[in-house]
Write a structure and sequence with these properties.
Helices cover about 30% and strands about 25% of the residues. It is elongated. The chain has one domain (about 50-165). Strands 1, 2, 3, 4, 5, 6 and 7 form a seven-stranded antiparallel β-sheet that branches. It is an alpha+beta fold and about 170 residues long. The longest helix is centred in the first third of the chain and has 17 residues, at about 5-20. A hairpin with a 2-residue loop joins β2 and β3 (about 75-85). Keywords: Signal.
């Protein structure tokens, strides 16, 4: 066999180098991290959803608690539970979800005991239950929590358990 000619080698090299451009990949810019989103945590929070809940948004100011979310899919429906916490008033949380959830197709169920809320949609029930934060035994965590409470005296820490269950 003879060695490929210089023209064949040049053509092959050109195709290899131009392949992404021919496929349309070279002209597609990669998404850049927007400094506006990175600089504004409230905007970044508004784009998040409660883990395992699909389209249930995270209220700005709430963050995942130390508890790991539970998600269980079964033929009869999905079961999910996630706990979020933040330094805000319960009424603000209820107001946010009372305004937001109907826009996502959820209807408000009758008021539940203990100030919690329920929403219904397509055979599923979403419950928002307010729970007391668990006491800590770690001295460093207790000190950090005390410092955080002093910094946020206007709003007490609120812990919300989101539970999604089939109806």
């Amino acid at each position: 066999m003879t060695a490929p000619s210089a023209t064949a080698r040049a053509t092959l090299a050109a195709l290899l180098l131009a392949g992404p451009a021919l496929a349309g990949l070279a002209g597609v810019p990669l998404p850049a991290t927007s400094s506006a989103w990175a600089a504004d945590p409230a905007r970044a929070d508004s784009a998040r959803y409660v883990e395992g809940m699909g389209d249930v948004p995270v209220m700005p100011g709430l963050a995942p608690a130390e508890e790991a979310p539970l998600v269980f899919d079964k033929p009869a429906g999905r079961i999910a539970q996630s706990v979020m916490a933040g330094a805000m008033d319960r009424n603000a949380v209820l107001s946010f979800y009372n305004q937001t959830m109907p826009q996502l197709g959820w209807s408000r169920a009758p008021q539940r005991a203990g100030g919690s809320a329920s929403f219904l949609r397509e055979g599923e029930e979403l419950r928002l239950e307010f729970v007391e934060p668990a006491p800590t035994t770690d001295v460093r965590a207790a000190t950090a929590r005390a410092a955080a409470q002093k910094a946020t005296q206007k709003a007490a820490a609120t812990v919300v358990r989101f539970s999604l269950i089939p109806r």
